[in-house]
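Quick note —
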Amino acid sequence: MTDYAQALQAGATLDPAQRDVVAAKLHDYTGLSVEYIEKADLRINSGEFEKNLQDDSDTTTGRLDTRFSGPTMDPLSKEADYDPQTAAIGSAYVSAFNDYVRKALQYGDNKIYKPMIPLWRTWNYQHQPPDFPRPLRQIANVMPDLAWAMKYNPNLKVQLNAGYFDLATPFYEGI
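Predicted structure written out below.
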């Protein structure tokens, strides 16, 4: 909300000395090289971060858990092509789920469990916020609903959970 946000807002008018200070701070926070941060114009998305964090075009950092690394599929790509964490342990989750639903819940015989299907392709993104006259076509955003609920119930408590090593749900994203 302060130095970095102001630097982004300044854009091309940012003083070069201030740009160097911001790039150095971003280096300290992220581990990305100052050169890369400056080349990216101080703007690095998560896929670029995953691909470039280890300063090695042959290694990609995990998205769901940055403690995982894996080989970069395309060393010339701009962003990470996959999540090494999912590749490393995804099959264990699928196996545990299949065992649980079939043995404990007695469900799923002759059914195929698909851990990932592109349902998002069929989403219509229509949502009618509280006290709004019509549905809006917009990117998924529950903030208006949460704001309405907090106004309706001033005692409402909200808990935000995010993993320390998680790049999929970064703190402050979308706020």
